[in-house]
Amino acid sequence: MHHHQNLGEAAAALSGMIPPPYEAMAMYEQPKPRFIFKMPRVVPDQRSKFDSDELFRRLSRESEVRYTGYRERAAEERRMRFVNDCRKGYAEMSFVASGTNLQLYFNANHNPYAQEQECDFERERGKVHLRSNFIMNGVCVRFRGWVDLDRLDGVASLEFDEPRAQQEDAQLQEQILSYNQRMAESKRIYHTPQTPPEDHSHRRGGPGMPGGPMGW
Question: DSSP assignment, residue 19?
């Protein structure tokens, strides 16, 4: 009996220390907006990186490439699958010297009005010439080369894709400008100087006591 009474008294005492709900709400701070900055697709100076980066310098020179798809299949099946993949618009290739693996995508539709086909089986007998544009390590590049349809290897290189790089640079600048404008607006709204709270210390002490008002 006394045990339950003591628990009741303790609960009553603790309840006096817990602020009512409306007081707790007074401490709630309105959440600030979260601005998600989309990761840029390209680096700020693509040309400089392409010219100075060791990997790009190696890949910009013509070197051996190989088809890497379906390695566990027989040679004849791999040849057939490579041709089928190319006609569908993709191919798995690797630069042999550096071990750089690429998943290439290109337009496999033959367009007689196009200046250069992205997948051309007609240009040279027994070979397919491939061209694929993509972004690698933040730089717009173009894969250009050919693959022997019997051996499934060939020669290719990476080129700097200047037109695509200019488009991506323009989008990057717009993205940065938009982000900076939203951040500035957020600071203007949520960092407006607030009126300092009224000093209530005089309620705790009289004239002449620390915290009290001046005596005049």
Answer: P
Nearest-angstrom CA–CA distance, 60 and 50: 9
- Position 191 pLDDT exceeds 90: no
Q: Mapping DSSP to helix (H, G, I), strand (E, B) and coil, where does residue 23 land?
A: helix
Residue from 82, 71, 95 nearest 126 by CA: 82
- pLDDT value at position 187? 77
Q: What is the pTM of this model?
A: 0.65
Q: Using an 8 Å Cβ cutoff, are 57 and 152 in contact?
A: no
Residue range 46-167 in CATH 3.40.50.300: no
| Long-range contacts at 126-132 (CB < 8 A, ≥ 24 apart) | 126/150, 127/154, 128/83, 128/86, 130/86, 130/91, 130/93, 130/104, 130/106, 130/156, 131/106, 132/102, 132/104, 132/105, 132/106
Q: Which of 156, 171, 149 is nearest to 79 (CA)?
A: 149
Token couple for 137:
């390590």
Local structure of residue 29 (DSSP, 8 states): P
